Amino acid sequence: MNHRQGQIFANPQVDACIDLMRRVAERAPRVHAITNFAAQVFTANLLLAAGATPSLSYAEEEVEAFTTRADALLVNLGTLDRERRAGIARAIPAAKAAGRPFVLDPVFVDRSPPRLAAARARLADGPAILRCNAAEFVALADAPADEETVMARSRAWGCVVALTGPVDFITDGARVARIENGHPLMARVTAMGCAGTALIAAGAALTDDPFEAATAALLRLGIAGEIAGGAAQGPGTFQPAFLDAIHAADETAIRSLARIS
Predict the structure, then answer these.
(1) Hey, which bits of 148-193 come out as E strands?
(2) Cα gap 63→195, rounded to integer Å
(3) Segment 121-125 mean pLDDT
(4) Measuring CA to CA, which residue among 32, 37, 41, 102 is closest to residue 67?
(5) Are 72 and 66 in contact (CB under 8 A)?
(6) Helix, strand or coil for residue 135?
(7) Long-range contacts at 6-13 (CB < 8 A, ≥ 24 apart)
(8) Domains in the chain, start-ordered, CATH in brackets?
(9) H/E run at residue 102
């Protein structure tokens, strides 16, 4: 449902978001998040606030065990040190062997050729969802981040592309969703996007439709950002307000605030 001038209109994407939000709270899917050191605590707290369960180890000797016992895997390249490289190399095959989806977040691949090469290799491993911003997409695709190109790359890569920005654009190459929810303070808190990708992974654990998972998570994140932005005095108070909003947002809030097409 969309909110337009005080009226609420039917929208199956909003229904899917609410359904998936409930399932995450009821089933507490475990997301094994191999993420950067700046994002670990916030990622874990966001998952817990949403009702999911985090694990965070990237140690080479135990990452396979953690991954196979999780319901989904997040691979974030924000701190691409040797230890995380080794852990990722073991975690992805373990996830695929166990039938677990993995979500790829190619942080700052536009800044580093070695990181870009690593991200392209991980993309070839077959993630269910790629979550990136426009600059990261341009680097990965070596093409502009216009909607037609994003859809074409989604088909070529065989994964959902969730392109985040002022308007989030999600596609599986055939379907598209555009989400206008969010707040400027979301860009003033470290690891907001990284932690948000973990929520996408939590949804992917509970549905066979990664397009639905990505769309539902980004809608929930954007609405929580708007709620938190209305209560916060600045970046310092925004982060706890955002976690509270993720935890407390209910069907009424989702239906009344969603701006999705």
Answers:
(1) 160-164, 168-171, 176-179
(2) 19
(3) 97
(4) 32
(5) no
(6) helix
(7) 8/255, 8/256, 11/258, 11/260, 13/177, 13/215, 13/216, 13/219, 13/260
(8) 2-257 (3.40.1190.20)
(9) strand 102-105
Q: Report the half-sphere exposure of 48 (CA within 13 A, side-chain side).
A: 10
Q: How far apart are CA 53 and CA 63, in angstroms?
A: 16
The alpha carbon of 178 is separated from its chain's Cα centroid by a whole number of angstroms, namely: 15
pLDDT category at 1 given cuts 50, 70, 90 is very low
DSSP-assigned beta bridge partners for residue 146: none
- Asked if 72 and 32 count as a contact pair (C-beta separation under 8 A), the reply is yes
Average pLDDT, the chain: 95
**Strand, helix or coil for residue 176:** strand
**pTM of the model as a whole:** 0.94
Q: Please say if the pLDDT value at position 7 is more than 50.
A: no
Three-state secondary-structure class, residue 90: helix
Note the pLDDT tens digit of each residue in 211-241: 999 999 999 999 999 999 999 999 999 999 9
